[in-house]
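Query form — protein Nitrate/nitrite transporter

QUESTION: What is the three-dimensional structure of this chain?
INPUT:
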Amino acid sequence: MKLSDLKTSGHPKTLFSSFLYFDVSFMIWVMLGALGVFITQDFGLSPSQKGLIVATPILAGSFFRIVLGILTDRFGPKRTAILGMTITSVPLLWGLFAGTTLPELYMIGILLGVSGASFAVALPMASRWYPPHLQGLAMGIAGAGNSGTLLATLFGPRLAEQFGWHITMGLALIPLLITFIIFIILAKDAPSQPAPQPLANYFKVFAHRDTWFFCILYSVTFGGFVGLSSFLSMFFVDEYNLSSVQAGDFVTLCVAAGSFFRPVGGFISDKVGGVKVLSFLFIGVAVCMLGVSQLPPLFAITALLFVGMMCLGMGNGAVFQLVPQRFQKEIGMITGIVGAAGGIGGFFLPNILGTMKEMTGSYASGFITFSIIALVAFSILLLVSHSWKKAWKMKEDAVKI
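ANSWER: The structure tokens for Nitrate/nitrite transporter are given below.
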């Protein structure tokens, strides 16, 4: 397998469009987290309220991912993406012109969940253009759109410091519009787009045990990544007394590791297998989060978070190297379901950190809890991997015959 195979085996323009759509959508999805320090100042939020505010778009994205996953399979990813971007403009306009009460803020967060649902569109759109041996890499490249978090954490605090968080949300409409135009021009649905099925058929994947296993694994890898991405700015301000801009820079550094190493996780998984890669990564996450729980000096905790986020990002790529092997025909729906599980994980993590901080006066117990969760995921992976390998070996033998 060579990287150059991506040019000859699929549709590079669609792969780029999928990445760009996911990138800008992801940036918008985590905006409340990036602007959390400024929003907290306006509303005087408690630690638990901080966790809930930044987690609301993540939880809403979980629901909308299932919806957009169904729409992707029934009407095609291009139409679904155009609809998603159109709806995403609504909370940005709401934040620009209103958003002065806490209930409004929660409603904005819910609607921002539509941008997070872009995951259930972008990945199937890219995957369907490429053969199985390139799907880990192709989905990793499209999934690297979670680097949009970098844009939010790097530029969001700076713009909010100059213009306020309301104007900053309005400015996000500019890259959204540019992406909308590029997507319409370049993106193309794959010829392998499956025929629409009866609605009830899409929910049959819930009957498969593997669906739930993938949900558990992804709720830890992606949930950990997006949950930390949304909450770390406030963590750095609270624990290390950084300014909002400084906190954003440190978060950007950590998020970069998770974003840019996602394709690496998919690429390595194509080579040696997603199960092996995930096993090492879950252990890495557990060790790093245990180290973070000690609340070491700023340099040390940044290094631990960098490596931990790198492991989570690579884990995202590894999980979705495995998913198409098990669910080929239902890739749109299963992407939505597993992605939703990742969003649910991302909802709980900020709430765990915020609630533990409020209960104990320290973030240490929250990070210890996350370390234990990573070890539980590792144990589950070991239990189910044997049956996966056996099933896939039987499928390979059947093909040879």
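ADDITIONAL NOTE: The mean pLDDT is 89.
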